[in-house]
Write a structure and sequence with these properties.
single chain, 190 residues, alpha/beta, Rossmann fold, six-stranded parallel sheet, 7 helices, binds flavin mononucleotide
């Protein structure tokens, strides 16, 4: 049976932990093959925001690609995959996707998802937004991407940061047809 391939991008917005948790949740699911790209800025935020090294994060993926390697498998639409999630997605990377400015592998892989009409989830992280940011989000939405900022829900009574991160990532992965077990859902009051 072919594995479910998922491309995971980590860009340099705050919230590198969202990308790490994405890899961890996917690695716990049978027959999922992950392809990871970390931008140079995300290498910095990982070190600033977590206790993990880049190697620790890459070890959580099945394949780790260099961000300059535009000859990597995931740079081609002929390489089959179920979709891509960029977690977190910086405004710079959002802008790259919005303009098909495929100068690095992360944006190229995202552009491939759009041209092949595969799910692309962008966990855009910035606050506040100016109108230019909002127009970029409008543009990628028109192109078929799903903009899903990591805005927490509280109906599930999160007790820890881990609960918040896992819930946001779990909801994002649903767009790729991937179900994370144990994800708490709203089923009405009482
Ligand atoms: C600690 C830290 C936090 C940052 N947080 C954000 C953020 O939340 N959103 C954002 O768009 N950029 C943020 N940046 C800036 C991006 O890293 C920067 O724009 C970078 O060029 C993005 O490049 P990339 O998209 O190729 O990773 C942050 C930078 C640092 C060092």
């Amino acid at each position: 049976m072919k594995p479910t391939r998922v491309v995971v991008g980590i860009s340099g917005a705050s919230g590198a932990i969202y990308g790490v948790r994405t890899l961890e949740l996917l690695s716990a699911i049978d027959d999922v093959e992950t392809h990871l790209v970390i931008t140079p800025s995300a290498r910095q935020t990982l070190l600033i925001e977590t206790d993990l090294s880049v190697a620790d994060v890459e070890a959580r993926a099945d394949f780790a690609h260099g961000s300059r390697d535009v000859a990597a498998s995931i740079a081609s639409g002929s390489f089959e995959s179920s979709g891509m999630i960029i977690a977190p997605c910086s405004i710079k990377t959002l802008s790259g996707v919005a303009h098909s400015f495929s100068a690095d592998l992360l944006v190229r892989a995202a552009d491939v998802m759009l041209k092949e009409r595969r799910p692309l989830v962008l966990m855009v992280r910035e606050t506040p937004f100016h109108l230019g940011h909002i127009r970029l989000m409008e543009r990628v939405t028109e192109m078929g991407a799903i903009v899903q900022p990591p805005v927490p829900a509280f109906y599930n009574h999160p007790a820890t940061i881990d609960d918040i991160v896992t819930h946001s990532v779990g909801r994002a992965l649903e767009h790729l047809g991937i179900e994370v077990s144990g994800l708490q859902r709203w089923s009405g009051p009482g």
